[in-house]
Amino acid sequence: MNVNSKTNSTHPLSEATFFILLSLAIEPHHGYAIMKDVRTLSDNRIVLATGTLYGALKRLLELGWVQRIDSPESNVTGRKRNVYRLTDTGQSVLDAEVIRLDGLVVVAKNHLVDENTHGTQAPA
User: Fold this and answer.
1) Residues spanned by the domain of 33
2) What's the pTM value of the predicted model, to 2 decimals?
3) Which of 24, 25, 53, 60 has the least CB density, counted as fewest CB within 10 Å?
């Protein structure tokens, strides 16, 4: 993955990080909405605990991949919510990861087609 050095992303993203960035790719969200979105996007494979989410968001803020913004809406206690949005750097990291994953899928499909063409069946 060739993003700039600030991204510190020369290795694959964890699934949790990938889905947090993916959740923020369309629009900003507050923490609870990110947790729900990650669960939905991952088809219930990733269920983030509050501490895990906020630890990840802290790291993503430090990397400059997400940014905290004020929400015009308050929560049920009347306090303003912290809302997070993807930065341009975060979008670049997400785009690079999608390209990387797509490349893996292409290699796997080509390999399986090649194996099937030569008479060897891929395991089901």
Assistant:
1) 11-117
2) 0.79
3) 25
